[in-house]
Write a structure and sequence with these properties.
Number of helices: 4
Number of strands: 5
Order of helices and strands: EHEHEHEEH
Structural class: alpha/beta
Helix content: 25-40%
CATH superfamily: Glutaredoxin
CATH architecture: 3-Layer(aba) Sandwich
Strand order of the largest sheet: 1-3-2-4-5
Shape: globular
Strand content: 25-35%
Number of domains: 1
Largest sheet: 5 strands, mixed
């Protein structure tokens, strides 16, 4: 089953910025209840878009510099990257159809 890949700051450039596929980046923390609510949505979307969109997770507690670099002040924050650029952002938990629409826009 497709699941979002947990990555670190060291892997970010390779996995996100240099990715040939659009990338959905979920900035989260283990202690964050809304982040846990988002997890099954991200897993469902990762499965649906397997092979066309990459899904990664970044723990803000262990990757604070990266979170700061992308001005993540509230979690969960989901960023949609294409060709190394942030194309869209959703802050907080939203219904699955919101993420779905943003992903479809990325692929358009």
């Amino acid at each position: 089953m497709a699941k979002p890949l947990s990555i670190t700051e060291e892997e970010f450039d390779r996995e996100v910025l240099m990715s040939d596929l659009p990338v959905v980046v979920d900035f989260y923390a283990d202690w964050c209840a809304p982040c846990r609510m988002l997890e099954p949505i991200m897993e469902m979307l990762a499965k649906k878009f397997e092979g066309t969109v990459k899904f990664v997770r970044i723990d803000v507690d262990t990757n604070q510099e990266l979170a700061s670099q992308y001005s993540v002040i509230s979690i969960p924050t989901v960023m949609f990257f294409s060709k190394g650029q942030v194309m869209d952002v959703v802050i907080g938990v939203a219904p699955a159809n919101i993420y779905l629409a943003r992903i479809e826009k990325l692929l358009a």
